[in-house]
């Protein structure tokens, strides 16, 4: 099945949600790690500013399932505040955090604020811009894991995301995607039709209270 684009933007052009800029520091205790995450709320960052519940759900899932992160090469897409990728780096993964250019200062600040006192177990997390479907070919395909938290909400980006994931997973990377299942943003459509066009997709965890699902996906061999 081919994933087709949807021209309707589910967000208004100017919703005025973040007209004023302010920051909020929050401490999260995850997998035995204390992370201090700054959320910069402002018109430029929009949905990239907050720590979404889907990100925390993914962190808890990785702990509960004892997913091995130490020594793994991991890339996070649409990292936002970076909480998922920073946690993986604190646990010994070699992590690349990616998002649109406007988000990178917030990402880099959170990486710097969360360096362990004894230094990173492997290498410091790398922060890089990545626009799905455009510059993904500048990234390698030798990842172990691809992490995605609450990035499925703009239907016009779904084909671009699938294209990007297919490139990143050429050499066998496993993708974990955590999403609030927003019908108004056609999130179920992405997992039922879009992603399965190229990937084997499995629902591995659901939080009914938060209406949040976690999926594991792997690229099908053509």
The chain-level mean pLDDT equals 87
Give the H and E element order: EEHEHEHEEHEHEE
Secondary structure class reads alpha/beta
- Percentage of residues in DSSP E strands: 25-35%
End-to-end CA span: 14 Å
State the helix count: 5
Using only C-alpha atoms, the radius of gyration works out to 17 Å
Largest sheet: 7 strands, mixed
Strand count? 9
Q: What global shape is seen?
A: globular
Tell me roughly what share of residues is in helical segments.
Answer: 10-25%
Describe this structure as you would to a colleague.
This protein is an alpha/beta fold and 222 residues long. Helix content is 22%, strand content 28%. The protein contains five helices and nine strands; from the N terminus they run ββαβαβαββαβαββ. The chain has helices at residues 53-64, 83-90, 104-113, 158-168, 187-194, and strands at residues 22-30, 33-41, 73-77, 94-99, 126-129, 145-149, 174-180, 199-207, 212-219. The strands form two sheets. The chain has a seven-stranded mixed β-sheet. Strands 1-2 form a two-stranded antiparallel ribbon. Strand 8 and strand 9 (212-219) form a beta hairpin. The radius of gyration is 17 Å and the shape is globular.
